[in-house]
Write a structure and sequence with these properties.
- With 423 residues, this protein is an alpha/beta fold.
- The chain has a nine-stranded parallel beta sheet.
- The chain is globular and about 65 Å long.
Length: 423
């Protein structure tokens, strides 16, 4: 027995030395990968296993900012080391403390190797972001709040993969032996907003992103199409409702989707992008978006109040884009007044029916998209500043920040320069 113990101890020591040698070699030769695989107890780093499956640990940013000042970043920009250097400088010198990164853009491409089953099944990941966990660590280490954007119903990739769920051209399909997809004026195809299969696909993307540590999920293109020959659109689900049920209004379809998102993502921070005109229009504008339908289902509502996107003559301005302060202030003041009215009406109705009324604090907060691109006017730092000031002035104590949009991902630094007093 003693001889066995001696040999046993010798064997243990020998194996330990071998493991130590391999470990040292691994760290020296491939230190970056070794670090990536580590699981940080503090939650700053999310480790992954060797086959790029879901993270071992999923933790979001500790102490996220109360006021979120974000910029939009495409997947390709987020996957570029050069662009991340640009971001580092922006974070160090400006008030920007958050980013909105594409999880799925309006081209339908998924930007990282999502674990959502259909991504791999239909080859929807094209390699924009190679290391999503490393990216989130990079941003969270800088105390940056990370929002993942999902373009929902405008989706050429999934439309081609699942044409039975896509909006089709009813005229061309009638003269063809197969379904012919409908395309908008930008030659992009759309999914049927009434399809629960489509809803579930986008929710699967959201769940996977949240598991990697995205702090918030943002939903864009949550509407029916508006551009192109919409009279030629056919809907495989929306058109196929039982005759006795009647065809749901577009606004009802989108409202049901909003509720479905919240039900299936109950513990996540959610935001939704709406047309800027939803703050002033009381109809759904033919796209199914009504401001009031979003109040109960999201943490943030982000109207796209780009002055350039309003019709000429709006508010009496020949060129609305040249009046950023007035346009944004009017839009956001109207939005807030409608939410206050909604809360009051809900409260009165609840009392009448003996129910508990929702309080203002439980309704969505406003955090608008603002214009930082040239359209309708050359946008200067002062014009972007005017939009931000208008947001603050209109929302007052309900100001929760803003998000800047520039498709090229290059922002007017002077408009968000950090003041000396904040250093």
């Amino acid at each position: 027995m003693m001889e066995f113990s001696k040999w046993k101890n010798f064997l243990v020591v020998f194996i330990s030395l071998e493991i130590l040698a391999v470990g040292v070699s691994y760290v020296l030769n491939d230190g970056n990968d070794f670090i990536k695989q580590a699981v940080a107890v503090s939650g700053a780093l999310v480790g992954t296993n060797s086959n790029n499956s879901a993270p071992i640990v999923s933790l979001k940013l500790n102490n996220p900012p109360k006021i979120i000042n974000a910029i939009f970043v495409t997947g390709y920009s987020a996957g570029s080391k050069k662009y991340l250097n640009y971001l580092s400088n922006l974070f160090a010198t400006t008030e920007i403390n958050a980013v909105v990164i594409d999880i799925k853009g309006s081209d339908g491409n998924v930007t990282y190797a999502s674990g959502a089953p259909d991504v791999k099944k239909y080859n929807l990941y094209k390699g924009a972001i190679k290391d999503i966990d490393g990216l989130l660590k990079f941003l969270h280490d800088k105390n940056i709040y990370v929002i993942g954007r999902i373009a929902v119903f405008e989706d050429p990739m999934y439309s081609k993969a699942r044409p039975e769920l896509a909006i089709y051209n009813k005229i061309e399909t009638a003269n063809s032996s197969k379904t012919v997809l409908w395309y908008d004026k930008n030659k992009l195809s759309w999914l049927d907003p009434a399809s629960k299969d489509v809803w579930d696909y986008n929710i699967s993307l959201a769940k996977d992103a949240a598991s990697h540590g995205f702090d918030e999920i943002n939903f864009d293109y949550v509407r029916f199409p508006s551009d192109g020959k919409v009279g030629e659109t056919g809907y495989p689900v929306w058109d196929g409702l039982p005759a006795q049920a009647g065809k749901k209004l577009k606004a009802d379809v989108i409202k049901e989707f909003f509720h479905y998102l919240r039900t299936n993502l109950p513990n996540e921070k959610l935001s939704v992008d709406l047309f800027g005109q939803t703050t002033t229009n009381t109809d759904d504008m033919g796209i199914g978006q009504l401001l009031e339908n979003a109040f109960k289902n999201f943490d943030y509502i982000s109207p796209m109040v780009y002055p350039s996107h309003y019709v000429l003559g709006f508010m009496g301005f020949d060129k609305p884009a040249e009046h950023p302060y007035d346009m944004v202030k009017y839009a956001m003041s109207t939005a807030l007044s409608r939410e206050v009215a909604f809360e009051t009406q809900s409260h009165d109705l609840a009392i009448k029916e003996g129910k508990i009324a929702p309080e203002m604090a439980s309704l969505a907060k406003f955090r608008p998209w603002l214009q930082d691109f040239n359209m309708g006017a050359d946008y200067t730092a002062d014009m972007v500043k005017a939009e931000i000031r208008a947001t603050q002035d209109s929302l007052g104590n309900n100001f929760n920040g803003f998000m800047l949009w520039n498709a090229a991902n290059v922002y007017t630094k002077e408009a968000v320069q950090r003041s000396l007093s904040s250093d």
